[in-house]
């Protein structure tokens, strides 16, 4: 059992619709609010429960204003002061930067941790041990990312090139980071995995809030100044008004460009290789995987009261309509059945769902997005 | 333009759910009530309109009591006396036998014609010319079937083995019938088609009503007696009461066994080779065909207000829900989308739909049948 840490503030940036999971995911039902594993918990709730035991302080959530109600319902123990609401999506640097700044003011010198709201991680205990090592390493003045031991030469993720062991006491598995690299082609990915020095970048960071902000100020001074204006008004009667006005003017950029990559170049980044099972549930192929479809004639069924009739078929059916779904002679099929939209594809084509969503956007079919 | 014939009474036995078209077809929405060609007319309505110009008399319809309302709506010109309602399905010999008996009593010595309610035939004029020849031949004392020139060595139909020309004046294409043969295997079907002497049996009969009844009495005396009891009460206040009581006791058998095959053995059957296009719309593969899906990347869409998004897919979408349907990377797919049931299969597996319906019956899911 992990002991709760002091002056460690995990937070969860909960943004992103997850449009590869349309029509299950929607603008008003983003991926992190869905139960994609049949566990009974949303991905956000599961993330929160993994983090809460690690700290004596509250876990903070940064999400869109439109999700305030749904997030509060999922996390009844979350107090309003720990729910930071974005007026609109402005990419990860703004969301993570604001959390760092608010937490640094709340608890100067603290270590923060940023963890995506929509990943599946098991078992929690192995993840938590990795976070404890990351916090220990962060206290030595490092931005510590938790990388994922690759289970395949995926071309869908960026990679982290690890250096030698840093020899930090109480954080024996922490290694230096030479650089972050973009999504590779297949040959490169194979070479990465074979070398043993590359980890998947899952976007998890543990660091002194002040060090995150130092790099943010150096690389994105305009963004940093805007966040400072917001933080100055935070907790006053002007909070919402200033947030609304300033937020829209903030530069849109990813935390990778604003902080992680330049910090790695400066030698300020370390990595804990995560040995837990990790999945970003990026598409319906991943959902099939996570719902334990293995046998060739198996169909995974997600959804309450769904009656599925299977004849010579395999794949996944996700339904929340209560209709009878009959599959006959369809292999590796993906059927997602919602009240106003129906998707039929295959596991192989699961990645193309995003383009369909873009087509719907372009054709003005906004009612089903 | 065909001249309307005298003493010729076409009738339409409208039974059969067409369960290979589930979930489009249902117990209360049988195939003959559906518009399967996107023409705006149900198959029944199209059948009626093909037959009406051939006669100076009304066209009669024999259907289940449960369909009285729907049939009347489809055929507003049909008078009640020409709508014969079966208390329950008792196979084709009972339905066709009763029509023959009622029409023989109405117009002694008449020729009747029995035409399925759920076939697609084009052009109507070529069909009508065949019927005129069949009526001419029938008046010489023959049961005349209209066979279909096979367009492929189908194993899904029974065949008619034709004999030599009968040399009937005004019916030059009429040939004798040696025998009816059951659905063949593939090699046999190929030999049949190559010989030029075999036609598909589409279940269309034109004959003196009295000759039909003569064979029925000889082969199914119990059925014949029952029908006589019903006919005796017809048009009296006891009609419905006698119908309800006697109908349930009638032997269930097909007109092929009760009349056509023994009549052929007795040398009483002739055939007109039909050169019109004919399709029994037996499954969703047929529906794709009829809705002109030819190109490899084409998707046929049937249903009002259906928005279909196609990416690298082919097949057919039938929807009456108004939902957005997105197909990604699925070839030869069949998607049938109804408010309470969804079918996903392929054109190749279209024939297996009937087994799924049987599974649903066995599992007690009667609400969607």
From TrEMBL, chains A, B:
What keyword terms does UniProt attach to this protein?
Nucleotidyltransferase, Transferase
Could you tell me what this protein is called? Answer: Mannose-1-phosphate guanylyltransferase
Q: What region holds the Nucleotidyl transferase domain?
A: 12-289
Q: Which SUPFAM superfamilies match?
A: Guanosine diphospho-D-mannose pyrophosphorylase/mannose-6-phosphate isomerase linker domain (SSF159283), Nucleotide-diphospho-sugar transferases (SSF53448)
InterPro entries given in the database record: GMPP_N, ManC/GMP-like_b-helix, Mannose-6P_isomerase_type2, NTP_transferase_dom, Nucleotide-diphossugar_trans
Q: Which residues cross the membrane?
A: none
Q: Which domain of life is it from?
A: Bacteria
MannoseP isomerase/GMP-like beta-helix domain residues: 308-360
- Which organism is this protein's natural source? Kocuria coralli
Q: Could you cite one Gene Ontology molecular function of this protein?
A: mannose-1-phosphate guanylyltransferase (GTP) activity
Question: What does the entry give for GO biological process?
Answer: GDP-mannose biosynthetic process
* PANTHER family tied to this protein: MANNOSE-1-PHOSPHATE GUANYLYLTRANSFERASE
């Amino acid at each position: 059992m992990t002991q709760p840490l002091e002056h460690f503030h995990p937070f969860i940036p909960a943004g992103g619709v997850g449009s590869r999971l349309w029509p299950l995911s929607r603008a008003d039902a983003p991926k992190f609010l869905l139960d994609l594993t049949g566990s009974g918990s949303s991905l956000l709730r599961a993330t929160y429960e993994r983090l809460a035991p690690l700290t004596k302080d509250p876990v903070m959530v940064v999400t869109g204003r439109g999700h305030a109600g749904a997030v509060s319902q999922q996390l009844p123990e979350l107090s309003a002061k720990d729910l930071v609401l974005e007026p609109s999506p402005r990419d990860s640097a703004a969301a993570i930067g604001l959390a760092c700044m608010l937490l640094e003011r709340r608890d100067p010198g603290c270590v923060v941790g940023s963890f995506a709201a929509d990943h599946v991680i098991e078992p929690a205990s192995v993840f938590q041990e990795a976070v404890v090592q990351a916090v220990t390493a962060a206290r030595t003045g490092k931005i510590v990312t938790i990388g994922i031991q690759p289970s395949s030469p995926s071309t869908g993720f960026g990679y982290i090139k690890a250096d030698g062991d840093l020899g930090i006491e109480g954080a024996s598995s922490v290694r230096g980071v030479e650089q972050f690299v973009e999504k590779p082609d297949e040959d490169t990915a194979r070479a990465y995995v074979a070398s043993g020095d590359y980890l998947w970048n899952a976007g998890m960071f543990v660091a002194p809030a002040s060090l995150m902000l130092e790099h943010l100020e150096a690389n994105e001074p305009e963004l940093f100044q805007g966040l400072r204006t917001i933080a100055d008004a935070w907790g006053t009667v002007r909070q919402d008004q200033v947030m609304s006005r300033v937020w829209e003017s903030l530069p849109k950029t990813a935390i990778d460009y604003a902080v992680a990559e330049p910090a790695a170049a400066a030698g300020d980044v370390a990595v804990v290789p995560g040995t837990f099972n990790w999945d970003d549930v990026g598409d319906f192929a991943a959902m099939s995987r996570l719902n334990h479809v293995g046998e060739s004639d198996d169909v995974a069924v997600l959804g309450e009261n769904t009656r599925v009739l299977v004849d010579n078929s395999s794949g996944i059916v996700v339904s929340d309509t209560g209709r009878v779904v009959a599959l006959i002679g369809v292999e590796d099929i993906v059927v997602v059945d919602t009240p106003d939209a129906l998707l039929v594809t295959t596991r192989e084509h699961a990645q193309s769902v995003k383009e369909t969503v873009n087509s719907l956007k372009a054709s003005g079919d906004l009612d089903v997005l």
